Amino acid sequence: MNKKIRLGILGGGGDSLIGVLHRVASTMYDKYQIVGGVFNPNWEDNIGFANQIGLPTNRIYKDFESLVNEELKLPDTERIQVISILTPNFLHFPMAKKLLENGFHVICEKPMTTTYEEAKILSIALKKAKTIFAITYTYTGYPMIRQMREMILNGELGKIQKVDAQYYQGWINPIIHDKEKRSTTWRLNPEKSGISCCIGDIGTHAFDMLEYVSGHKIESVLADLNYLYSDNKMDIDGTVLLRCNNKVKGVICTSQIATGEENSFIIKVYGDKAGLKWEQENPNYLYLMEEGKPLQVLKPGHAYNSELSLDGTKLPPGHPEGIFDSMGNIYKGVAKAINKEPYNHGEFPTIIDGVRGMSFIEKVVESHQKGNIWVNI
Length: 377
Hints:
alpha/beta; Dihydrodipicolinate Reductase, domain 2; 13 helices; globular
């Protein structure tokens, strides 16, 4: 029997949404075992959380430096193999760089870094390390998103004409309108988040997803961002016009002040033969639209779906799967790569996606600051 991949985690303690998401996802296909980490910079909270989730505490470290130093003392057969970085944005780069330089595989939350220059440095470090690097654009793991990708790749939509992504949330409303709250949350602090809040947090999901499903590269952007208050340095809403290769055009609309919205992420791609539409809040439904024909609804688990889609489906048709399953599929793909097993390149986003995502963030902000002009990525 193959041994499980030894997984370490940085951040994600307490009531962190992404923490439980990553932990559950890593267990789904029985590929990983969490053996250690640093869940919180406060030692009492760190060790207390490890006890809470039932982890042995002998490899719960006081800080990141201790984790790396102590793990490197262990033999290869015991050392942590891959580490998930779930910390605030500003820690992604220094942590990922040191991990790569010391031979660890890395799974990193998005945005990958806080600057495009940092992203390029990580790309060089990965080439030297020759390890696996995945970035968790989580929604690419949904079976029907993978089906969408394969249908477009196979030409079922014909020549692509337009791409469209909308990602609306309302969670920042209670924060942005309170001067004290908006000045103390890390999401709105450039030193911890980078130069963008909304575009960096959810706009990159939309950017990556459109490139993932359509197979087209976004080449230039024209952006109009909203900061709402003069003392707020971070965008919390924005619209971005897109120009892609092959003369394809599109739009990304993002907001974290869309009052009442929860996590409304909608992807639409239109070709000259048909269109496809997918909604994250109803992820089991992929809508196929063709001129002169009734609307078709494709669902996961059926034999008509692609091999990539079926590989990411664990349950029979009619049994809902969701965000945990989507992240689990990414972890599954990373496990295949670490174990040197054959895998589809659509199974997990790589450092290339992370670098392009950082370029997108910076060019969107540049476009807005220069008076809403077209800027090349």
